[in-house]
Amino acid sequence: MAVRQMSRRSLSSERRSASSGADVPKGHLAVYIGENEKKRFEIPVSYLNYPTFHELLFQAEEEFGFHHPTGGLTIPCGQDLFVDLISDLSRR
Question: Does the pTM exceed 0.90?
């Protein structure tokens, strides 16, 4: 239930962000990754179904709650780790 709540809130903030000029392709979600310098990634919303991605969402909730500093979904993990994760998910 918490993942659904997080994704709904994240998606609603992304819709607000999209209406202010930050275009995100349909069926995707913008996330900000990095511990110091944040990099924006656009990922398919289908990734939200994977347990490995759930872990990242729980980390984000623990660190930021539902108020993310960038206005979008910020995930506190290294960019290299995230790229490896999404590469693995894209092969499934």
Answer: no
